[in-house]
Design goal:
By secondary structure, this protein is an all-alpha fold. It contains 13 helices and no strands. It folds into 2 domains: about 120 residues, no CATH class; about 100 residues, no CATH class.
């Protein structure tokens, strides 16, 4: 029995070590870049959004808001207090929708995490995140131009923890908080992938996601709801699934539906949207993820 346990431990350690060497550097790079943006650029992102509201650039505001959402490093509970204050000051809700949707789908850390899957897939994920933000903004502009979509009355400005007067210490503390918040999920993703590599037959994923690509995209979008925990934690699994036959479209569907329906985000979103608009949001994310995956597979990416 002890020999069997030792052998299994050796196998798991081997698979874990391989995963760490493959994606660990991207995880660390994402942490460092994300903290840099959070410490040095967060204030400017809020200021740019405020100035944008004053210039009234029409539909171009949706484009600018989407770009700002992409580079914003804030989590959902950090984003909502900011957009709540912008909404109170008169910011258009279609701009807020574009900013929030793109911020949910992508941030600097997540882009660098995704580079572990290859630069083409990282760029594809960035493109889909921008498209998702733009589409959300235009849909709110068209269907909710004369009625409110958000309800921010329960939210207040968040406490800024990046206040250390020594700028290097401020940055180091932010890196530490990011590691504390994401490292357990990253480690869990590495371990889960090692267990998966050792005990799940390789034909399972191939049969689910490559035989029928249309069904695979829909299935991947659905699996993104319960399985997605954080960006760094799911990259090892996606990498292994792609290696074993998962189509790029199915992977893209998972990477869109996952952050859009992450459980830690949904509570805050429900409070900000109300039950009716919350359901609309969920339907939008699932449909956008599944259709994006299907189109990607049809064009043979």
């Amino acid at each position: 029995m002890s020999e069997i346990l030792h052998r299994e431990f050796v196998y798991l350690w081997y698979y874990t070590d391989v995963q760490l060497h493959q994606i660990g550097k991207y995880y660390l790079l994402g942490i460092l870049v994300g903290s840099f943006v959070s410490v040095f650029l967060k204030k400017y992102i809020h200021e740019w959004m405020t100035k944008l509201n004053g210039k009234k650039p029409g539909w171009l505001g949706i484009v600018f808001a989407t770009v700002l959402g992409i580079i914003s490093p804030l989590c959902m509970y950090g984003t909502i207090p900011i957009v709540a204050s912008l909404n109170e000051s008169g910011m258009r809700e279609d701009w807020i929708a574009a900013f929030m949707m793109s911020s949910i789908l992508m941030n600097p850390q997540l882009f660098f995490y995704s580079m572990a899957l290859g630069m083409p897939i990282a760029i594809l994920r960035l493109f889909l995140s921008i498209l998702g933000g733009l589409l959300a903004g235009f849909l709110v502009m068209i269907f909710f131009h004369d009625k409110p979509f958000y309800h921010f009355t329960a939210f207040f400005s968040s406490h800024n923890r990046d206040t250390d007067p020594v700028i290097i210490k401020r940055y180091i503390k932010n890196v530490g908080r990011n590691l504390k918040a994401t490292l357990p999920y990253f480690a869990a993703g590495i371990l889960l992938t090692a267990l998966y590599q050792r005990y799940v037959p390789q034909t399972v994923v191939a049969s689910l996601f490559s035989v029928n690509k249309g069904f695979g995209s829909l299935l991947a979008a659905g699996l993104g709801v319960p399985l997605y925990t954080c960006g760094g934690g799911t990259i090892p699994l996606i990498s292994e699934w792609l290696y074993e036959g998962m189509s790029v479209g199915s992977a893209a569907a998972f990477m869109i539906a996952g952050p859009g329906t992450k459980l830690t985000n949904l509570g805050a979103l429900k409070s900000a949207l109300g039950i009716k608009n919350f359901v609309i949001y969920i339907i939008y994310v699932i449909l956008f993820a599944a259709l994006s995956g299907l189109v990607i597979d049809l064009i043979g990416f």
